[in-house]
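Recall the central idea of this unit: under ordinary conditions, the amino acid sequence of a chain determines the structure it adopts. In this exercise we apply that idea directly, starting from the sequence alone.
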Amino acid sequence: MWSSRASTAVCAEDGTAQPGNPRLPVLFVMVVGLVLLSMTLASCASSGDQAAAQQSKARLDHELAFAYNSLGIPQSLLQPIETQEQKIAAGASGFNYSYKDAASNYDLLYTQLIGVEQTAPQVLQQQAAQDIEALSKILTERRNQGFSQINAYQTRFDQATKDFSVAKTAGDFAGIDATVQAQTAALSALWPAYLKLQVFESVLQAVHNAGINSQLAEIEYQNDIQVFAAAAPAARYQVLDTVIGGQINQLMADQTESLPYVGSTLLDEFQARINLLRQYGQNSDASQFEKEYAADGATLANAKTLADYLTFSQVIDRQTSSMTLPLVRGKAYYDLKQLKTLIQIVQTRNPLNAYEYANPRVGIGNPGDGGSPVGDTDAAYTVEGFQTADDETNIQLSNLRALVDNLNDPTPPWQPHAADLSLMQEYNIVSGRVVIISLREQTARFYENGKLVFWAYVTTGRPEAPSPPGLHFAIDHEYHIVFQSGDPKGSALWYAPTPVNYGIRYAAGGYFLHDAWWRYKFGPGSNLPHWDPLAFNGGSHGCVNFAEDVMGWVYGWVPDGAPVVLY
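Accordingly, the structure predicted from this sequence is:
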């Protein structure tokens, strides 16, 4: 048996055909038959798998359409799923393509899509809240810069916060966020055009003082103002920047007797911006522009014809426009230096009076810390980037100044404080319901239309985990939730899973106003090490703690979208 099997194996391996072997045709027919049978079975299997893949794809496409059209989920959340679907479909004509695998992948994407639909409202709610906060910052910045046509943007902001307070669906939050982002983009884009408008105003004033008729140019100036008053979109301001330059040139062409006055005004405006660069400490840029200024002065002195003046105007317009980035960058670093200096002054007097502002995570930050004044300023390289960073800096600077003003205020905690009212006016949040939390007093005060309606002692974050100072907004309300520590077990900041009855998220990163039933002591000093008969003897982990019954009232009184100021 063994040797027979061995010789058969050898014969099969060397593949030598023996002439006249009657078994060979039979074997050939059997092999061909098996091949044909396997191809037939594979074809049947492929046909079934192909149908399954098509059904799975159709189900996925139907759900995508539902997510877009009925739920209002924006493309930004659905794009990853669409991209993966396209990759699966693109391989359908390829070699070794498996319809069975395709069906499984389509089913997996469908499951992921259902997950996106379920989480989209919360994701978009938090994104909208963050963007509302960003819009509030640039609104405050523009108002402080004297932008007189701010009211239309403020009206849209107020409407967005009202809509946010009653929004429920992903589509609701996506629509609000799109509006808010558009207003932020416009307020950022308008600044170069607004500076150009101020130059136009100065030119008109100089011409008017010289007794020269400039009626047509004044009409154009009023039309330009209407663009700002109407809260135009970002693209409109980019066009307007160029239009205003053309209007100034047209004034010179129409009223040739105005040429010397217009030229002198343009040169003076250029010098004023150079002086600002010096004030901001941007000496290198200032020196370069001063060389250009000297050359421009010589050009103006030698100008004789309309063409000479128009050439001068075009050159100085281009130079002035190129100053936008250095000016915005200079102001951002100038304001950041002021914030650093004030933090140092306050902490020198008492390190516990500004630890929130000095903190690298929730305060001034360090290089590389996104969302902080230092991190965002150092990372910025565009006008918009520096403006955003400067807005963050100025919010903290305003709040810290209010803290300093409030340190020696003898007003009792149950009465309105001047620092509270000052911040409400600066941020234009006097109307509606507002929460003001004094970090030094460990006190929350609740205002409605500028009137104090309630107050309570609180406990804010300990020095190791401070509460983020700033201008925030209530993001959402959560009832009967369990907080999980984000720190590893064994860390000094770790805590066991803790149930909470009432929570209002006020800042990204898991910061809440919530009840702390485990505390007995609230109020002054409770954010620092202390004795508490209920055993918890330190500040919070960044949240703002209230007594349980008080937080029950707060939960019902504070709407989503309400300003929450920590200073």
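Strands lie at 433-438, 443-448, 451-457, 470-473, 476-483, 498-507, 511-515, 544-546, 563-566.
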